[in-house]
Design a protein that fits this description.
Elements: E1 2-5, H1 7-15, H2 19-30, E2 32-35, H3 37-50, H4 55-68, E3 70-71, H5 87-95, E4 100-102, H6 106-111, E5 113-114, E6 117-120, H7 122-130
Parallel strand pairs: 1-2, 1-4, 2-3, 4-6
Antiparallel strand pairs: 5-6
Helix pairs in contact: 1-2, 1-3, 3-4
Length: about 130
């Protein structure tokens, strides 16, 4: 299954040892992680400037994602996205034919789906994984 983890989920995966960390491990172990250069750039900025995570740690995490994930950058224009900065990220997830877009962004979660791409919270994704047969 192809899974696009939004920047806030990836940030939590590195910064905490909770649900997002567990989801990240499961996705990179058992599924195909999808990402974009937009997410990687944003991730680098958030981790170093907002969370003050050491640059060497941040660079290693971003590099690991870029080497593990399928990186998609889409030129597709999407309308009706609450924050226009999220449009290229969602477009990349759609173009990659992701099964899920996992985010903690409340505005995106209100959309529930876009172009048949389910937009779910980390908790909802965890529950969906629990219902997937082996």
């Amino acid at each position: 299954m192809k899974v696009f983890l939004d920047t806030n989920v990836l940030t939590s995966a590195l910064a905490t040892r909770g649900l997002c960390h567990e989801l990240f491990i499961v996705v990179i172990s058992d599924h195909q992680l999808i990402s974009s250069n937009t997410v990687l750039t944003e991730l680098q900025r958030v981790l170093t400037t907002k969370l003050k995570i050491p640059e060497v740690t941040t660079a290693g995490f971003v590099r690991m994602i870029s080497e593990t994930a399928q990186i998609i950058d889409s030129q597709t224009q999407l309308d009706g996205i609450p924050d226009p900065n999220d449009a290229p990220i969602l477009a990349a997830a759609i173009e990659a034919k992701s099964s899920y877009f996992v985010t903690g962004d409340k505005a995106l979660l209100k959309l529930k789906a876009i172009s048949d791409l389910p937009i779910v919270s980390p908790r909802e994704f965890w529950q969906a994984l629990s219902n997937v047969p082996d």
